[in-house]
Amino acid sequence: MYTSIRIALFFLIVLSSGPLSAHELTPTYIKLRQSYVENVLTTRVNLWNGRPDVLYYKLNVYNKDWEEVPFFALPGNVVKVDYTERMKLDVFIGAPDAVNAVYVCTRSQILKGLKQKTVISSKICSKIK
Predict the structure, then answer these.
(1) Are 45 and 51 in contact (CB under 8 A)?
(2) What pairs with residue 56 in β-bridges?
(3) Helix segments in the chain, DSSP class H
(4) From CA 89, how far away is CA 80, in angstroms rounded?
(5) Which of 16, 46, 83, 101 falls between 20 and 30 A from 39, CA-CA?
(6) Nearest-angstrom CA–CA distance, 108 and 96
(7) CA-based Rg of the chain, rounded to a whole angstrom?
(8) What is the pLDDT of residue 58?
(9) How many H-runs (helices) and E-runs (strands) does the chain carry?
(10) CA 27, CA 88: separation in Å to the nearest integer?
(11) Rounded to two decimals, what is the model's pTM?
(12) Whether residue 75 has a cis bond before it, omega within 30° of 0
């Protein structure tokens, strides 16, 4: 019993030690539609940066087993988004690969060589319908 109380207190202290911030990827559920290129499907997601300590985010597409699926994104697979700014990302997936695609995700990227206090990386995903 004391162990569960200690664990609960630990999480309470961690969560109350400072504001939790992350980034946001919307919409939560996305649909792929035919792009202007034959056999290429596309969708658009919106990325919002709620982390003052992170400027770069990497975009990935995964299948149901969390294996990477080939894709192309505009303006790029790694984007710079300033704190409290938004960016629209267009994701393009080949029709054969789109059959297996389940998630479009962004992960915060901390650059090597920067002296940042954070060690937390956030990953947010939208699910393909």
Answers:
(1) no
(2) 80, 109
(3) 2-16, 95-98
(4) 12
(5) 46
(6) 28
(7) 18
(8) 95
(9) 2, 10
(10) 11
(11) 0.76
(12) yes
Task: Of 58, 35, 55, 73, give the one whose Cα is nearest residue 125.
Answer: 58
Q: Who wins on pLDDT, 52 or 89?
A: 89
Please answer whether residues 106 and 123 qualify as being in contact, where contact means their C-beta atoms are separated by less than 8 angstroms.
Answer: yes
How many other CB atoms sit within 10 Å of the CB of residue 59? 20
Would you call 123 helix, strand, or coil by DSSP?
Answer: strand
For the chain, which domains are there? 20-128 (2.60.40.10)
| Residue type, position 3, single letter | T
The one-letter amino acid code at 20 reads L
> Rounded distance, CA 11 to CA 8, Å?
5
Q: Rounded to the nearest 10 degrees, how much is the dihedral formed by the CA atoms of 76, 80, 86, 91?
A: 10
